[in-house]
Amino acid sequence: MPIYVGTNKIKSIYVGTTKIKAVYVGTTKVYSSELQYYGTATSLSEARSYLAATSVGNYALFGGGRTSSGYSDVVDAYNTSLTRSTPTALSTARYDLAATSVGNYALFGGGYQSSDVLKVVDAYNTSLTRSTPTALSQARYRLAATSVGDYALFGGGYTDSDYSAVVDAYTA
Predict the structure, then answer these.
(1) Tell me: the pLDDT tens digits for 97-140?
(2) What pTM value is reported for the model?
(3) In which domain, by residue range, is 5 found?
(4) Mapping DSSP to helix (H, G, I), strand (E, B) and coil, where does residue 109 land?
(5) Scanning 7, 55, 87, 135, which has its CA 20 to 30 A from the CA of 44?
């Protein structure tokens, strides 16, 4: 339960120079600076593995993956109230893709489908509108993605025949 002073949410409480980890009123915890398990949210719209996840604006996005019957192009979006919606699907169904965010965009890149290694990138803005920016320079799956400063990076992975050392950079 967050504590507010006026309309400002308290992020940290100190007594002198000592940071307080928790505040109780009776036996009820009313403040904690520690990570706490909240519970479960609405399930994904379909069961799948090897999917990718990132966030943009007020949404957490889960995209692609492998299902019991094939490959998924589904994107599930959760808002700050943990309500699930399903924006426009990825441009192609795939699994073993990577995701990261930069600026006002969530990016899903690479992946695998059937016997095809992919280099497609899908971008979702804060309104969950999908666009397709320039593809990765090299098709690959099982790659990694992260962000630093103004750049989203997709690195490594596996091509159709070998490991990759390529890093592609995107900027908003």
Answers:
(1) 999 999 999 999 999 999 999 999 999 999 999 999 999 999 99
(2) 0.82
(3) 1-36
(4) strand
(5) 135
